[in-house]
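Exercise 3.2. Students should predict the tertiary structure of the chain below and write it as structure tokens, then compare their answer with the key that follows.

Predict this chain's 3D structure.
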Amino acid sequence: MERRKFLKIGGIMAAVAAVPPIALNMHSVMASTVQSIVKRELHYLTIDPKGLTQFSDDYIRFVEQFPTLGQQKFRLRIAGEYLFNKNAQTSTIVEGIVKRFLLSSDFFVNRMDESKTVKYLGLHDNNKSACFNPFSHMYYPPQHTPQG
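Answer key:
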């Protein structure tokens, strides 16, 4: 066997052997990246750590529902945009993650009170709660009844 052929086969074998550990760890890497993005973008809010962990797991499971090509595209974009320190103003994927977190939390239920701890309620899905309006309290303020 020639040396080049041996090295080529050895390289292919090493790559094949390395894929399963990387694939198994990809969920936790992506979840921690989502957590880091939310923490960085919403640094001025106090966020419940358990809720943020649950949100990142739910969000990654949501993304994994899409075909494999969509998953790979998401993974590459989120990793690149996080590493290059893009924010919600310059990145649609970062903006989408932050919006989804805020809609999935009690932030709007608490009338955007930044002094309260933001808790995760459940992954927001436009198809399941299409009529949800986080700003409805502006249009329908609470009715004050006269105390008598």
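Discussion points: The CA atoms of residues 46 and 128 lie 27 Å apart. The chain has five helices and no strands.
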